[in-house]
């Protein structure tokens, strides 16, 4: 570089520092300015020899990240300093101890969190990436500013990716859409989320991005005219009320227009709400709500509102802290347009999210973000599931729209759209969730799979004897509920496995076979299982019965047969022998709520595999075709032929439950029905679906429908019922 170029670069670096102080959203004290100056000087010195791929001095990257943190997110001086230093420990001679000595514990902790994230493997596959994501979220326990600065870092990297090779651009953009945009959304950083999504689309689907962006540019003049016409109609009425306000248009992001085009299967021109009109008014805190509804009244005096599309986020703010009134009205030229009404304070919270929310937070009121962080910590602490399951469930909750329901005492609870009474029960307390027997919604008994709506009052009925069943995972939608149910089921499996181990020990002893590592290993191989826990669990459940154990014993006595079988099947030592897991063999596909077995074939357009999330589509000539949920044709089929869609899921046939009808006859006496139901409920893994008793001149007849995992369980149950005093006969229909 020439002397002139170096001089010019130094000028730009110095200007960067001045800009940083000028644009900060927070009011900076002299102490704050000294702290930022010190961090700036050390970052400049540490990164002095480094250059980015584009040839630019590396220091411009930390400065840009600090600017995003200061202006767009509005964090404090400590965060601005940490943003300037975020790559120092990772890329230069400075150590974490140096940072702590120079800047104290808080900034050192934030930089340490950012360094840990930087150390995560970059060229990871999807499962490794999911594991990294889980580790990254653990940094939230330290300081939420870690994740916010990381989002700012990612935003600047996305803005400056042009000089990277294509494959790296696609990888970083995909990771951004997969991880960073959802977190930005959840932290209320809507502007940054939008930019991350648009940039993600720009590099993953450049042609699509460019087409939509071009179409937005071409329609800009038309949009500006529309907003001018809209404003001119309501201006006079708003001014008469003495309101101070601005009216602006906000075009929808490229990414959200793309999502709408895919979801509704329409072209760009057919997307009807490509932009929103935003009315931002000035008000003190006390009058905000009153003025917002006054503006609502004026707007709806002039334009016909769509009653279904009213969103009142002022009375019940989103859990991100977002507040506004959203109404959809018929605009000047017969087009629906969304109108967002918010005060300047609400606007700042919508723009800055976390920082503005805390600036305006009053007293000790519980904050939506705090609640979310507590729930997240809960999920992380109980994360027994695979990393991919964890990420998918976490993302599901990040992006979900909210509903508001009431407790019996009238307290308001926020839940994701699509939540069920089971989700509500777990949101109150884990113990309430685990003991849930039923629910009343607005005074009426409803099944646990019932979808809640905003405004519902939910009352949970609990029972000390209730335990979660596998079906609950079909009813629960929130990550918290699913996590707790999986945990409880796992504990049940452990108990049953211990019982199974004792049973197996007895049965093998009678066959003169010791229960040791060698025999366990052989049995795991023989029954084509993966772990000893699988073996004990299936013995406890009864899916591996006496007959099957004898088959194993016979194979063992035939040394040649055993030798060949072991050679073919698995190595002698099974490394998974002590693992605690129950393997799901996705070997059967069932359809509908009743889990029916029907004939089907796989569609060629998406080629599903066992275990994939799928649905059935009833064709005219070829019967049921099975498609993946994310099949390219799924949206089209679901929108045009919803009546032909069948829900479908993979199950492990060895763990499937079956219905059986049992008839009891005998001499009637007091308390007999109670004893019958007690015997059934004491048999683990047996549920009663229907029960009816009739008595005629001292003789009774009972008809019971039970759900059992296999025949052995039913035989055992019938034997136990037969032992009851007064029962004459127990038969299966």
Automatic annotation (TrEMBL):
Checking PROSITE patterns in the record gives: HD (PS51831), TGS (PS51880)
Judging by the UniProt lineage, the source's domain of life is: Bacteria
**What exactly does this protein do?**
In eubacteria ppGpp (guanosine 3'-diphosphate 5'-diphosphate) is a mediator of the stringent response that coordinates a variety of cellular activities in response to changes in nutritional abundance.
Family as reported in the entry's similarity comment? Belongs to the relA/spoT family.
Q: Name one GO biological process term.
A: guanosine tetraphosphate metabolic process
Report the residue ranges that make up the TGS domain in this protein: 401-462
> How is this protein named in the record?
RelA/SpoT family protein
Ranges for domain HD come to: 58-158
Q: Which Gene3D superfamilies match?
A: 3.10.20.30, 3.30.70.260, Beta Polymerase, domain 2, Hypothetical protein af1432
Q: Which GO terms describe its cellular component?
A: plasma membrane
Q: Which PANTHER family does this one have? A: GTP PYROPHOSPHOKINASE (PTHR21262:SF31), GUANOSINE-3',5'-BIS DIPHOSPHATE 3'-PYROPHOSPHOHYDROLASE (PTHR21262)
Cited InterPro entries: ACT-like_dom_sf, ACT_dom, Beta-grasp_dom_sf, HD/PDEase_dom, HD_domain, NT_sf, RelA/Spo_fam, RelA_SpoT
Pathway listed for it is: Purine metabolism
């Amino acid at each position: 570089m020439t002397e002139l170029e170096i001089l010019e670069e130094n000028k730009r670096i110095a200007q960067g520092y001045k800009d940083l102080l000028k644009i900060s959203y927070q009011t900076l004290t002299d102490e704050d300015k000294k702290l930022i100056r010190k961090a700036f000087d050390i970052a400049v010195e540490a990164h002095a020899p480094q250059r980015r791929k584009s040839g630019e001095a590396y220091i411009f990257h930390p400065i840009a990240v600090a600017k995003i943190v200061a202006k767009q997110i509005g964090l404090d001086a400590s965060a601005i300093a940490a943003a300037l230093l975020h790559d120092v420990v990772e890329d230069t001679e400075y150590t974490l101890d140096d940072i702590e000595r120079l800047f104290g514990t808080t900034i050192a902790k934030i930089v340490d969190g950012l360094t840990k994230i930087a150390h995560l493997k970059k060229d990871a596959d999807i499962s490794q990436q999911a594991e990294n994501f889980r580790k990254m979220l653990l940094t939230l326990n330290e300081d939420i500013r870690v994740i916010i600065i990381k989002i700012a870092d990612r935003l600047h990297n996305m803005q400056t990716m042009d000089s990277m090779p294509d494959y790296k651009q696609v990888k970083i953009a995909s990771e951004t859409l997969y991880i960073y945009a959802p977190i930005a959304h959840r932290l209320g950083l809507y502007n940054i989320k939008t930019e991350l999504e648009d940039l993600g689309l720009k590099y993953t689907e450049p042609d699509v991005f460019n087409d939509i962006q071009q179409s937005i540019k071409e329609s800009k003049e038309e949009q500006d005219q529309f907003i001018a016409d809209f404003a001119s109609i309501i201006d006079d009425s708003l001014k008469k009320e003495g309101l101070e306000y601005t009216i602006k248009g906000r075009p929808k992001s490229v990414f959200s227009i793309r999502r709408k085009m895919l979801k509704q299967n329409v072209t760009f021109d057919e997307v009807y709400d490509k932009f929103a009109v935003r009315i931002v008014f000035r008000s003190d805190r006390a009058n905000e709500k009153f003025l917002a509804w006054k503006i609502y009244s004026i707007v709806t005096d002039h334009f016909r509102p769509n009653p279904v599309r009213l969103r009142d986020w002022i009375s019940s703010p989103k859990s991100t802290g977002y507040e506004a009134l959203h109404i959809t009205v018929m605009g000047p030229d017969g087009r629906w347009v969304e109108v967002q009404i918010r005060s300047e304070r609400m606007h700042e919270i919508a723009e800055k999210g976390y920082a503005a929310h805390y600036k305006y937070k009053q007293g000790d009121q519980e904050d939506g973000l705090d609640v979310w962080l507590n729930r997240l910590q809960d999920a992380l602490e109980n994360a027994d599931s695979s990393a991919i399951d964890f990420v998918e469930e976490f993302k599901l909750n990040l992006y979900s729209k909210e509903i508001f329901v009431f407790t019996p005492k009238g307290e308001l609870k926020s839940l994701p759209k699509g939540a069920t009474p089971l989700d509500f029960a777990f949101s109150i307390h884990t113990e309430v969730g685990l003991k849930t027997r039923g629910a009343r919604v607005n005074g009426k008994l409803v099944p646990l799979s019932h979808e809640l709506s905003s405004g519902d009052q939910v009352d949970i009925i609990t029972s000390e004897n209730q335990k979660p069943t596998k079906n609950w995972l079909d009813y629960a939608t929130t990550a918290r509920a699913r996590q707790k149910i999986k945990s409880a089921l796992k504990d049940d499996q452990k108990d049953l496995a211990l019982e199974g181990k004792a049973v197996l020990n007895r049965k093998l002893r009678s066959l003169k076979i010791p229960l040791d590592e060698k025999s366990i290993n052989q049995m795991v191989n023989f029954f084509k299982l993966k772990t000893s826990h699988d073996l004990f669990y299936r013995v406890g459940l009864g899916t591996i019965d006496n007959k099957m154990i004898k088959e194993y014993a016979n194979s063992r006595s035939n040394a040649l047969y055993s030798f060949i079988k072991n050679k073919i099947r698995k190595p002698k030592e099974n490394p998974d022998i002590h693992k605690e897991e129950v393997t799901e063999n996705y070997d059967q596909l069932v359809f509908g709520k009743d889990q029916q077995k029907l004939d089907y074939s796989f569609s060629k357009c998406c080629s599903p595999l066992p275990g994939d999330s799928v649905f059935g589509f009833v064709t005219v000539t070829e019967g049921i075709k099975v498609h993946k949920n994310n099949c390219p044709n799924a949206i089209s089929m679901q929108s045009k032929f919803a009546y032909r869609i069948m829900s479908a899921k993979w199950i492990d046939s060895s763990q499937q439950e079956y219905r059986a009808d049992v008839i009891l006859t005998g001499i009637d006496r007091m308390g007999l029905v109670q004893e019958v139901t007690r015997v059934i409920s004491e048999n683990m893994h047996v549920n009663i679906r229907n029960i009816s008793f009739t008595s005629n001149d001292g003789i009774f007849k009972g008809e019971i429908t039970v759900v059992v995992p296999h025949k052995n369980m039913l035989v055992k149950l019938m034997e136990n019922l037969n032992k009851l005093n007064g029962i004459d006969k127990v038969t299966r229909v």
